[in-house]
Amino acid sequence: MADIFDVIADGTRRDILRLLLDRSSAGERGTSVSHIVTELGASQPTVSKHLKVLRDAHLVSVREEGQHRYYSLSAAPLDEVDDWLVPFLDDEGVVGADVAATSLTESAAHAADVVGRAAASAKHALENALRKLPGR
Q1: What are the residues whose beta carbons fall under 8 Å from the beta carbon of 115, sequence distance 6 or more?
Q2: Where would I find the H helices in 57-105?
Q3: Contacts of 80 (CB under 8 A, 6+ apart)
Q4: Is the pTM of this model over 0.70?
C-alpha cells in the first residue's frame, strides 16, 4: 500500500496523472511525451523519469507507434487508495470521525480509531520526509 502513496506523493506525477485524465476525458487515446513536456513546462528527462515511476506502479500504460510513445491513465491502482480513504469520509466526502463513530459498533469504532491514528502518523512521517527534499 505504501508504494502507491509514495508514487502519488510527488506533485509532478500528480500533474501528469491529472493531464492524462483530462486528455482521456476529452477522448484522446494517449498523450505523447512531448505534449506532457509542453503542458507541464518540465524537461523531457524529468517527465520521462516520472513516467517510468508511474509505469512501474501500473498507473499509466504506454502505446508505441514508431518512435513515438503515447501514455494513458490506468486508474485501477488508484482504487486501492480510494478503498483506503473511504472509511475516513462521511456522506459529504468530509472527514467526520465524530459523526461516523456514533453510528459504528464499539469494535468498528475502535478499528476506525486505530486506522485514523495510523493515518495521522503516516501523514506526519510523509510531511517530515517531504520537508527534507531539496527545493522544499
Answers
A1: 87, 88
A2: 78-85, 97-102
A3: 1, 4
A4: no
